[in-house]
Amino acid sequence: DTGFSHVHWCHQWYTDYLYSEHEIAHIKKTLNNFSLQLLDLHASSGKEKNWCSDIEHERLAGVELVKNRIHMTRKLGSDVIIMHATEYSESLIRSLDELMPYAKERDVRIAFENLDTVYFDIIAKAFDDYAPDYIGLCYDSGHGNFTGANGPAMLDKFKNRLISVHLHDNDGAQDQHKPLFSGTIDWERLYGIIAESSYIKPLSMEVSMRNSGFTDEKIFLEECFKNGETFSDMVQEKRKRF
What we know:
By secondary structure, the protein is an alpha/beta fold. Helices cover 43% and strands 12% of the residues. 38% of the residues are buried.
């Protein structure tokens, strides 16, 4: 009702939950009923089913969990899953190697999300080892705004690997997921980098009412859509000049 065309699926983003074919079919039907498309899906590294685990059965279960999300993403018409990883370990590398043929067969890429000040070190290693047709970057503007995170500079460095965005604002101290233009993020700088990046999809906001000051959901969504359109127009104008 407020104008959105796409959604970022974030349910069960950090659990061991496996979606069944029946649930995936129901989600697809629901999206179609509301004329919504899946932009991307926040997959799960799990708790016990953990693709980074040094315990082999947990790692293998984690690979199975990621395959479930890759399959779901393809079924729902998208081509990107977003993942977290706390370290670039031998276990993670083995999982990435095992997942590669499954993901490529379904034309789904994995986007590593920036989490804190050291996380771009992990991302850089993954980019060195894997090609852009398999591994890319999900840039979270809120995480990039934390003190010392230096997110925009790192995004500029890896802008040719950008395949997903989580846009939201904060005060630089906490992960608040506020609407765009309501915190301390330098959006003028950010729109220029995104415009010159490899990202070509609709812009996605990962916002929440929790710290927004809004109490009415419809008014909140209308405000978010208006801010999103403003930022999207800024990016499009820069792309024309670029």
